[in-house]
Design goal:
By secondary structure, the chain is mostly helical. It is built from three helices and no strands. It is elongated and about 50 Å long. The model has no long low-confidence stretch (mean pLDDT 82).
Length: 87
């Protein structure tokens, strides 16, 4: 494997972890995974705060980086098979 594949693989792994954490940090809107971490107890707090909007922006940005890393790996493996060749 060469440096482009290794770099995109590391980016993909890191953004996958960060994206999962950001999704779990979102405010609960009626049950789900965030209730496991106490999200259902804060029903009195507003959902349109600056922090919530910034978290939305960060989630979308990390999601786009994640998507481009997947597309980049697809392009490298599909159109440049000699880059992905082991050995």
């Amino acid at each position: 494997m060469t440096w482009p594949i290794i770099t995109l693989s590391v980016v993909l792994i890191l953004t996958s972890i960060v994206l999962a954490l950001f999704i779990l940090l979102h405010k609960s809107r009626g049950g789900g995974m965030s209730d496991l971490f106490g999200g259902g107890m804060s029903t009195g707090m507003g959902g349109s705060s600056v922090a919530e909007r910034n978290l939305d922006r960060l989630t979308v940005t990390v999601g786009l980086v994640w998507l481009f890393a997947i597309i980049g790996l697809l392009v490298l493996y599909r159109f440049f098979p000699e880059i992905g060749a082991m050995g």
